[in-house]
């Protein structure tokens, strides 16, 4: 059963080594993420899943100990998804997708040692129905399950945004932020996958995995951060 969740943005810029001189611009987001991850530990989960967007080839599960790197962003920095397990030694040596690498960095920064960790990369093409079903499976995998969910809102909030300005972006992000901040499962599942794709909202599938996991759990939500630096919607929320 899902007992807690933290929702954080997924840009590698959250890692100060990647952001370099621009690092202070995301200090507030980092602080909010630290608070949300701290609330996960307070829930005393038996298992933690780190869920984030991934390319089609990186879709699927990642065992404890899976490694990721920020070398693709010009930084010689590696991370690991919790303690190494026997599964990590059995030939599954795929590198973590960037979103899960950010999650691993957030957990390492928090000194996470509260429960075993597994990762799940979710492709943008995954339907809401499949996402919800996956979330239900995660929630049923242990008596007390927690999720760290990575993902961004629209990348079309300003003319300088990666996807340029789209007038629909502000409304999409406002609804996503409201749903994440109130643990509104139905609203998250209702987010339109086609519109999310057009607005380059990479978090849609991950949020819908969370929604499936939270069905019937009766969790409350709090929005800890809502801003659009660089024209991309970044949200931090805590559910408990």
Oligomer: single chain
Share in β-strands: 15-25%
Helical segment tally? 8
The helicity comes to: 25-40%
Number of strands: 9
Along the chain, the helix and strand elements come as EHHEEEEHEHEHHHHEE
Q: Strand order of the main beta sheet, please?
A: 3-6-2-7-1-9-8
Major β-sheet annotation: 7 strands, mixed
End-to-end Cα distance, whole Å, is 12 Å
CATH topology: Protocatechuate 4,5-dioxygenase, Chain B
Q: Which value, in Å, is the CA radius of gyration?
A: 16 Å
User: What is the fourth-level CATH superfamily?
Assistant: LigB-like
State the low-pLDDT regions, or none.
87-91
Structural class: alpha/beta
Instruction: Determine the mean pLDDT.
Output: 94
CATH architecture, by name, is 3-Layer(aba) Sandwich
Can you identify the CATH class? Answer: Alpha Beta
How would you describe the shape?
A: globular
Task: Tally the structural domains.
Answer: 1
Structure, described:
This protein is of the alpha/beta class. It has a single domain (2-239), classed as LigB-like (Protocatechuate 4,5-dioxygenase, Chain B). The protein is built from 8 helices and 9 strands. It has helices at 16-19, 27-42, 98-109, 128-139, 169-182, 185-189, 193-198, 204-214; strands at 2-8, 47-54, 60-62, 67-69, 78-80, 117-123, 145-150, 221-227, 234-239. Strands 3-6-2-7-1-9-8 form a 7-stranded mixed sheet, with helices on both faces. The radius of gyration is 16 Å and the shape is globular.
């Amino acid at each position: 059963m899902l007992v807690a969740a933290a929702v954080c943005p997924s840009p590698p810029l959250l890692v100060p080594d990647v952001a370099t001189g621009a690092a202070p611009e995301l200090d507030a987001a980092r602080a909010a993420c630290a608070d949300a991850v701290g609330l996960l530990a307070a829930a005393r989960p038996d298992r933690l899943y780190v869920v984030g967007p991934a390319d089609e080839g990186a879709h699927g599960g990642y065992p404890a100990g899976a490694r990721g790197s920020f070398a693709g962003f010009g930084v010689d920095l590696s991370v690991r998804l919790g303690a190494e397990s026997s599964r990590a030694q059995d030939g599954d040596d795929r590198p973590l997708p960037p979103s899960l690498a950010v999650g691993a960095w957030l957990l390492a920064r928090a000194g996470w040692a509260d429960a075993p960790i597994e990762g799940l990369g979710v492709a943008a093409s995954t339907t809401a129905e499949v996402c919800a079903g996956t979330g239900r499976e995660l929630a049923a995998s242990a008596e007390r399950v927690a999720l760290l969910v990575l993902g961004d809102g629209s990348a079309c909030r300003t003319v300088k945004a990666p996807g340029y300005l789209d007038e629909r972006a502000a409304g999409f992000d406002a609804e996503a932020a409201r749903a994440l901040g109130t643990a509104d499962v139905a609203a998250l599942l209702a987010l339109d996958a086609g519109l999310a794709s057009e607005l380059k909202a990479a978090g849609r599938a991950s949020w819908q995995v969370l929604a499936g996991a939270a069905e019937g759990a009766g969790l409350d939500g709090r929005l800890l951060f809502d801003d659009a630096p660089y024209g991309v919607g970044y949200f931090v929320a805590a559910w408990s």
